[in-house]
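User: Sequence in, structure out. Go.
Assistant: Echoing your sequence, followed by the structure tokens.
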Amino acid sequence: MISSPGRALLHLAAAVGRRPAHDAGSPVEPVRLAERGALDFVTLDDGFARPGPDALTALARAASATHRVGLVPTVPLTHTGPCHVRAAAAALDRIGRGRAGWRIEASATEDEARLLDLGPARAPGREADGDTGAAAGPRDGRVDGAGVRGAAAGRPVDRDEPDHVGSVFPAEDPTTAPRPSRGRPVRVADATEEPARRVAARYADVALVRAVSLAHADSVRAGLRADAARSGRDPDGLRILASLVVDLGGGEHAAEPGHGGGGPRPTPRGPLYRGGPVDLAELIAGWHRRGVVDGFHIVPAEPHRDLERFVNGTVALLQHRGLFRTFYPGGTLRDHLGLARPAGRCVVTGGTS
């Protein structure tokens, strides 16, 4: 049921892009722009067929040029391995002083699989759930420091050693590096489809949902919270953001028919809003006011143009109306999202602890 909460915090995040060239500094300016708008975090996808540094390395370099905004790279488990994912994300969290997350991506495209000679891409479901569980679930308490090659060393994570056996990755850490002092990095997961939704409900701190209407968003939110409760979690510890492709090329023009009002238009890329910053602010405020989402993850159709218009137009308007923060009250991504530091876990092996 759609609810109308009081003054729940609105959370905003954005995907940042980069030019397809060996330019390590290309994400830095978009990340700075997001920080000027006080966005909770940015995401950066990782493409194995694309030249340039991996997402972890690119955001590690952006960390030194920013101070508050959260940094969330996509790290494909199918190629990197859960131990290396944990290690690299923890290293980015140390570099960013508690600002890191990692976006769960448990499947790969056919082209990426072919480049690494890993055979056909795995479909989401049991294996994806198992891989993500190995990386996210069993051990928050320790990370594989020896496996860090990207964020810690300023070089890409070694993708030629995918640390796996058979169809699922092992859960064992090869080393016992200390747990990050601020707790494990924040976990972000796409949660639109049913198999991914189960993973997000069980392990994620932030769930991204591609919803095309208020009713759709409300239904997915209810399902996620119910699944979280069934897995033994407090549903209030899960932030649910609507992921929305935005095309603000029309400047100040109103939203095109079918792109604003009750919801965006479905497209192959996901729900799309096409129009001006003002009507986008109305859509964001309306969905949040109805309690169907905790915020939005914006994917600019044109990376630089639309992110700039989103921050300088839509976000500025939401701030003017008192609906979104004008400064960061804390220094970590968990602070921005209102998430508590997770309790550590001890692992017992061979009868000893």
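User: And one key feature?
Assistant: The first helix runs from residue 28 to 36.
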